[in-house]
Design goal:
This protein is α+β, with helices and mostly antiparallel strands. The protein folds into two domains: 3-147; 179-300, Beta Complex (Metal Binding Protein, Guanine Nucleotide Exchange Factor, Chain A), CATH 2.170.150.20. The chain contains nine helices and nine strands. A six-stranded antiparallel sheet has the order 3-4-8-7-6-5, with no helix packed on it. A three-stranded antiparallel sheet has the order 2-1-9, with no helix packed on it. Strand 6 (262-267) and strand 7 form a beta hairpin. It is elongated, with a radius of gyration of 22 Å.
Length: 301
């Protein structure tokens, strides 16, 4: 066995072993894993789905004939993991950077494998377009789709809030009503975020990549929260703002759920849960208001 083959085998083993090692935490709903995926809005389906995809990638990498497909798949998975570390989780999770190092190691190993198998990948791409190898075509599509997350943004104007009798764009009176009353007025997905403090999945919301000029209001009560000129691209998968319209537009509360210490952001009028605030935003505030799309409404300028 020559040096090149030894390097390829070493890279395959390193990538596969690291991915398999982390599967235990994902499939057993380990508290640390649950807290991590909750923070990025992918709990529980994202945790299970990513675990399954990592298992598939590990198996494909270890089989010589499918190593290139596994490398493409693991590169897509690890690029997503690295993105979350660099944008919302941080390099250190619970004071430890091992998860970031694991993701970076698998990412680099997979990239090198892609270089070794570049000709084979080109051949697969040709077969994809000619339709002669459905299995390779399917796996290539899966790998490439995971490597580039995108979400179409179509709906950009205010939705019809006629059902919600508590919604107003003019009334600024603080709202103190029961959850039963909120349930009657809010759609289930809005109620889940507003009153049960839920979190939508990253890159699935209506406004994470929205760029039109206007005002973002609370979907529960109509209170103006943020202006479009206070929005910025954070690549975290949720709408991000560096400042609210006014100091009274939002409220803050300590949040120690899931073993983490965070600051919750709530609507200043109705106390609806909006998201969380972090200290990694741009100037002049250096804050990042990470907000769920479900709980905001957009009024075009």
């Amino acid at each position: 066995m020559n040096i090149k083959n030894l390097v390829i085998w070493a890279l395959r083993l390193v990538a596969a072993i690291i991915m398999i090692q982390t599967l235990y935490f994902k499939f057993t709903a380990h508290p640390q894993s649950v807290a991590l995926f909750t923070q990025i809005g992918l709990e529980p389906y994202g945790r299970i789905g990513i675990g399954v995809m990592e298992l598939i990638a590990s198996i494909l990498i270890l089989i010589p004939r499918t190593t290139s497909i596994g490398a493409l798949l693991s590169t897509g998975l690890m690029s997503g993991a690295l993105m979350f570390h660099l944008t919302s989780l941080g390099i250190e999770v619970d004071g430890d950077s091992v998860l970031f190092i694991y993701a970076l190691t698998v990412f680099v190993a997979s990239l090198i494998l892609i270089l070794f198998y570049f000709k084979q990948i080109l051949t697969m791409a040709q077969l994809l377009f000619k339709g002669k190898n459905p299995f390779s075509a399917l796996m290539l599509i899966m790998a490439l789709s995971l490597a580039s997350c995108s979400n179409a943004q179509n709906k950009t104007t205010m939705t019809n809030n006629s059902k919600n009798k508590l919604y107003s764009t003019t009334d600024t009176t603080p709202l103190k009503v029961s959850n039963d009353e909120w349930k009657k007025n809010l759609d289930p997905e809005v109620y889940n975020i507003a009153r049960e403090k839920g979190t939508e999945r990253a890159f699935t919301g209506q406004y994470w990549n929205h760029k039109e000029l206007g005002t973002y209001r609370c979907k529960a009560c109509g209170n103006p929260l943020f202006k479009s000129d206070g929005k910025f691209e954070s690549s975290c998968g949720w709408p991000s703002f560096f400042e609210p319209i006014s100091p009274t537009s939002v409220k803050y509360a300590e949040d120690k759920t899931y073993g983490m210490e965070r600051v919750e952001v709530m609507c200043g009028r109705c106390d609806a849960h909006l998201g969380h605030i972090f200290d990694d935003g741009p100037p002049p505030t250096y804050k990042r208001y990470c907000i769920n799309s479900v709980i905001i409404d957009f009024e075009k300028k």
